Each structure stands twice: as structure tokens, then as C-alpha cells.
Amino acid sequence: MPTEEPFQGVIGRTLEDSVPWWPPLPEAPEGAPNVVVVLLDDVGYAQIGCYGSDIATPNFDRLAAGGLRYSNFHTTALCSPTRAALLTGRNHHTNGMGRIVEIASGFPGYDAVVPKSSGFLSEILLRAGYSTFLTGKWHLAPAGEMTMGSPRDKWPLGRGFERFYGFLGGETDQYHPDLVHDNHQVDPPRTPEEGYHLTEDLVDHAIAYITDVRAVSPEKPFLLWYAPGACHAPHQAPAEYIDRYRGRFDQGWDQWRHEVFERQVASGLLPPGTRLSDRPHWVAPWDSLSGDERTLYARMMEVYAGFLEHTDAQLGRLLDFIETLGETDNTLVLAMSDNGASAEGGPRGSFNEMYFFNFEPERLEENLQRMDLLGGPRAHNHYPWGWAWAGNTPLKRWKRETHEGGVCDPLIVNWPARISARGETRHQYVHAVDVLPTVLELIGLDRPDEINGVPQRPLEGVSFAATLDDPSAPSAHVTQYYEMLGSRALYHDGWKAVVFHPMAGLPYDGSDPNKPFDEDDWELYHVAEDFSETRDLASEQPAKLEEMIELWWSEAERFNVLPLTNQPGRGGDRRYRRDRYQYGPGIGSLPEIVAPNLRNRPWRMQAELLVGPAGADGVIAAHGGSGGGYAIYVRDGRLVFTYNFLGTTVTTVTAEVALPPGEVTARIEFVPTGPFQGDLDLYYGDVPVGQGHLPRTTLFTYGMQGFTVGYQRGSGVVAGLEGRCTMPEGSLRRVVFEAQGRRVQNPEAQERAGLAMQ
Known about the structure:
Helix content: 10-25%
Number of helices: 15
CATH superfamily of the largest domain: Alkaline Phosphatase, subunit A
Oligomer: single chain
Number of strands: 28
Strand content: 15-25%
């Protein structure tokens, strides 16, 4: 690291009467371990083998068998907030991460800007002599700062990581990921047809980074933050992993959940007296489903199981590599999930999640026809919420919500040189903010008072290091608030008050999302004796409940939780909105927040072309991918516009004549003829050359794949346009998009789309 230390040698007139001096290199405390954090995504409490599942996860299980599993570890219920809490030891609203970055709002607890006064674990360990790497998901930069033209201070290399390989947003396609290497976008090294899968690629890079450090620093400890996209949607995995589970979930979620609960009880995971929570009325009994529904939904769970086992296998590769270095004993591994299992597949699951986020119902018959494609490169699938409910056994609810199913998650801690216990369970209450102070204590480091000249705010988590040796050590974390999208909870000394407040646009259980917060019906549980929240004591102990609610409000004021809202689409960042967009070819992929916003309004595109002897075939501009979007391109010398509506209805309008040679302006104009439909006209200069009609246009979002000029990145809006598919050099001069008129608004769709990247 750079140093400001004054020179401490002697400078004479010549070398002979001078004494050289070098500033000492940062050195970690003697015996400091390597630190490997394995952060899974949307993996529920009961989905890893050692937490009761029958999904094969032998490598997670061996970590637990050689160390400790924690039964009472808690997160924030959503990914960006949990990641901020883990990396800083401060609460998510303290970090401006009250929600995911894509639905930030202009308030201190929600602006998606982690302050420099909340130093990251990577920044602390880098100063202490560690090498620091991150492979996988970041999701901690504001949505408008994930472009090649953005500042990089909120990217991994700006927050203490020396190397980064992964993706900046909340999710990505496992076969066509939106990859960033250090500070620049890159394409995957192979295609799906060549066997590419992101999780394998992430481990390849993790191993390469460790190898590079060991080549020059054999003793230097490292921090590896390994955060695969697994098992967030899209659920995608090699077919051989998926097919291992054929028929394994035919018994359905009700029976699977009971079998998991029996294994949890038998293994000692759950505190004595824990009861299995009831099935909520909005989750259909498996036996009430039709035969076709059971066939499809079981297959969707098979895909998820294959995804998780494949992820476990890649973890095994990483652990085996560390073993070949002889460094297993002195490597501290913490493996966890960022929130409960996800219900974003809705009651019927989805072949393409963009249906849900655009308020488009999926047809069972259509999904049955595409069942064999689930888990592959052309699917963006998610299982039904019955499997999410079962995946959080024995708990209530799921991701996004503050009942235990949303906030209680697996945590495994393994460090052979330090932890003498093997295969034991710890029941102390632990929260994500406790991970950083625990790691610092185990290494022997204090929280720095300043980082790079910025004074550091106090930690809000507490170390649970004492529990590594003492199963009876008291829980050091006594009080913890929760808030997510309007739902709230407070844990205090073995008690929990909690309320579910439905999010606008998603009142799936019959609750009223417009109900005032002051009229919400809080529940009260003595979770020290009722881990799964099955005995609501609110009516029996109203004074205790009132005490807990008042404490929640106090904590909310203290930690930037206010103002409360369940409408994440309101108050969003409008600084990037404009009606005219001008680009040159080859810009980096742009996320939706800064891309041309053409949906549900008139628009015009003009492309300045130079058509030479070699023609001008290639991509002009594209937004989206195989799950939905549009592409403007030249094929066989003619201007073409293709609109892909949610991966099922593809409309192509082609010019009737070829582009003339020389300089020409190709123009496309779209005029709505009704809600979410319209006419399209193609021009060369002012000469009309084609027309067509778009029967359906996307309501709100194309999903995770961004906007590009001069090439199509990721999976193709049109098959065959994948990759760079560029025009001859110099053929594309400039592209201008102009949005004309007001956009058709749909607030509920805005709320849903805000969740598309969580």
C-alpha cells in the first residue's frame, strides 16, 4: 500500500555516505488465518444437507462436520442489505442499504451509498497485510454507477479488494453473465455450448488469484469473498446435475417439509421444543394440484437442487485447492446465505421471471411444453413458492419478510487450527453485523479509528468468537431491529415482535398494502422457547408487546430506518432520466436505470451509417436478451427491428430494400396505437422502406441484460446475435434515441420491477 511515512535513512552527497531505507511492508498478526467467506444467494434455512435437506451438499456438510453450524444466525431478509451488513459490521440502514440498490430512494437509510465511515472488512484486512479478492456478486454500488462511464469508488476495487471477477448487479445469467474483471466489462471465456457455467468460472478465478499471491508471497494471508449467483434465479445448472434429481421431489412440498423437519430434530439442529409451523393458506396443498402441475413443479425443484449441488461441487474444488497448498488448517471459512428462500416464482413458478415482473400470467400448458428447457441457457426459471416455504423449514414466510423464514439462515464456521469442536451446533442468537467483529477478534485486530483519513463510526455488531469454544456462552447480541419493504420486527433478549406489511403490488396473502403502519397487527413470540414462531403471545402479554414496539421505534430513529414505506418504486433516483440519448459504437453495457427508456411511449431511433463494399451487417443497438427485449440490426444489407416479448412472441420488421451504398441515416419510428402496442416505420433518410405492428410491448422491464450499441452482449434477443456481431469497422458512426411524449405509467409494475434484481 502507498505510504506517507517520512524517509528514515540518510541522504549524503554520494551513495557512499548515504543509507537507504524502505518502509516496512504491512504484516498481518502472527498466525493470522486465511479468511474465506462463502456467501450463497436465496438459499433457505433447510436447503443445505447439514440443515436437514436431502439435496447433496457434501462440501458444505464437511465444513460443518469439521467445525460448527449455527442454528440461530440472522440476516436482513434481502441481499444488498445483508452484504453491506456483513462487510461493514453496521446495520443496513446505517449503510444506506435499506433495500437493494435498484430501488434506492433519496433518504439517508435508502440511498444505496455505503459511507466511507463504514469501513469494509476488505479495507481493514488490506491495511493489515492481507491480499483481498472477490469473485461473484457485488450488488453494493448504486444502480446508476454500474457502467463503464461511472466512477469506480463504490466498486470492489474502490472498497479494499485488490482483485474482482464477477457481476455488479443483483443477478445474472449463469450461462451469459454480465461479467466485470477488476474495473472493466469482459465477455465469458467460453460459450454454453463449450461447457461454460459462471459458478465454475468464479472458482477458476479464485484459484488463480490465490496462485498469483503464493507465487510472490508464500506466507501472506488472504481474504477471499466468494459470492456465487447461486441459488438466485435464474436457476441454471448443467443437465447432468439436474437429472440426478429426477423423481426425487414427486412427493411434493408438504411431505418433503415433514421429512426435513424430522432430520433437523434428529440431528440436534433445532432447540428442544421447536414445532413445525403451519402451512399458510396461500400455499396450495400438494395433493390439491393437478397431475400436470405436480409434474412441472417437481421438475422446477429438481433444477434448483441440481443448481445447489453443482455449486457445492465448485466449493469442493476450492477447498481441495487450499488443501493442496497445505493451508486448510489455518483457513477460517464462514459459509452462509444472504436471506431466506425466495418466493419470487409465485404460486405456479416461472419459466421466465420477467412474466411476473411485467404482470403477464404464464400458462401451464406453455410451461409444460418448455419443461425440458428448464435450467438451460434459454430459460430464466424459478420454482413455485411452495418450495420456498419448504426450503425454510420449520420457519414462517420467506425472503423479503421479517418473520424467521426471511431472516434466519444457515451459517457454518470452520477453522481446524482454532476450533476444537467438530460437528457441533451453536444456538446463540447471531446477526450478519456480528461477522466482521468476530473475524477481527479471531485474527487479533482492532477496528481502526480511521481508514484512508476517514474517521470510522462505531461497529453495531458484536463478536460471537466466544461461542466457538463454549456452547453455553451467552448470546452477546441482545437487541436487533429488522425492517424490509414495510415489514418490521424487533429481537430483544429472547423475545421477538414482528409484523408483516404487504408491499405495494404484492398483497399475496389478502392483506391490505394501503393499511396505515400504525394500524398493523403486531405478533409477539418468545423465540428463546418458540424458535419457529408458532405461539403468538400478543393478546396474552400486551404490555410486553407495547414495550417491544416502542423499542423498535427507538431503534428505527437511531439507525436511519425512517421514513417507512412499502412502495419501493417511489422516491427513486431520477437524476439519470432524459429524453435524448446519443451514443457511439462499442459503449459498455448500460443497466436499465441509465438506458434509453422507450417503453410505452413514442420514440425515434436514428443510426448514421457508412455502407461500404463489404456491406454493414451487424448490430446497431440492443436491449435485453432471450427472455425479452429488442434488437436493431442490419442483416443481408437490410435494416431489421426485432421485438422479443418475454421470450415467446417475437415480432420482426425488415426493410423491403437494401441499404444504399455510402452515407445513410437509418431511422425507426414507433407510435403507440393503444396500451403496450403500436406501429413501427422504417426509413432510409426520409424514404419509407418498411412498416409493421407490435401487438405487445413489455410493460416495465427487460430484466438483467443491459443496453448495448454496436453489439449484443449476453444471450441474444434474436438467436444468432450473441456475442459481438459487429459491423465492419467505421460502418456505424452514431446512434440517437429520442423518446417523445409521456410514458404510460403502471405503479404496481414499478414496484414489482424494482424487485427483479434482488
